[in-house]
Design brief:
This protein is of the alpha/beta class and 222 residues long. The protein contains ten helices and five strands. Helix 1 runs parallel beside helix 3. The longest helix is centred in the first third of the chain and has 13 residues.
Length: 222
């Protein structure tokens, strides 16, 4: 868990979407942190640059251990969830209603106000939540497309090749749709289409093997 070589292998496995199964995991959490050699630090940096991934600034064995825990979803209250919902706080009422509906169908959902422990680095927790989720639901509204936080989360989800499911909760001009979403077919989740929209979400989540074909659909409003 403190080997930079093992971390690279774990990073690459996660990048490829492989199922990671820890076996006989015995981690000593109070190990003394040691600086990595310059060559190991450069090796880590080149890996993240080559795959166009965020630099994790791995400089010590403690950094390696923390990153390994993050990738395995072992940080307190940051266990892997099926779905990460990206929504502006101004759309919290709709988000909470969707969260309740998905929970009734036994779908696990990550949200910042419920899954980030006090005292945790907020931005790092967000990144880990996105990395550990299989699906990334983005609320399309005037609030979300003008939110720096939402745009940053969307960029991170796209960078890690997450399945992005856009939900239209408010009509906005096509020109204001984030570029990363314009090639994706959205689900109409406006006020009069919440029930049918939920059905579409459940179908998509159920048929994992079909989502690549679903992504090829053109933006419906274009």
């Amino acid at each position: 868990m403190t080997s930079p070589y093992c971390l690279l292998e774990l990073e690459y496995a996660c990048l490829l979407g492989k199922r990671v199964i820890p076996i006989n995991q015995r981690v000593i959490y109070n190990t003394v942190s040691q600086p990595l050699s310059d060559s190991n630090q450069q090796m880590m940096l080149r890996f993240y640059q080559f795959y166009n991934l965020p630099n994790q600034n791995i400089r010590t064995t403690q950094d390696v251990l923390d990153r390994s825990h993050a990738l395995l979803g072992k940080i307190d209250r940051l266990d892997a969830k099926e779905i990460f919902i990206c929504a502006s706080t101004a759309d919290k009422i709709i988000r909470n209603a969707l969260l309740g509906s998905l929970s009734r169908y036994a779908k696990t959902v990550w949200t910042h106000d419920r899954d980030i422990q006090k005292g945790t680095d907020y931005q790092q927790a967000i990144k880990i939540g996105i990395e550990n989720a299989d699906n990334f639901i983005f609320f399309i509204s005037q609030n979300s497309v003008t939110s720096e936080h939402c745009q940053r989360e969307l960029a991170y989800a796209l960078q890690y090749n997450k399945r992005v499911i856009p939900l239209l909760i408010m009509s906005i001009p096509d020109s204001e749709i984030p570029e990363g979403l314009r090639a994706l077919q959205y689900i109409d989740f406006t006020e009069n289409h919440r029930e049918t929209g939920l059905d579409e979400i459940l179908v998509i989540l159920q048929h994992d093997h079909e989502y690549y074909e679903w992504h090829k659909c053109c933006w419906r409003g274009a």
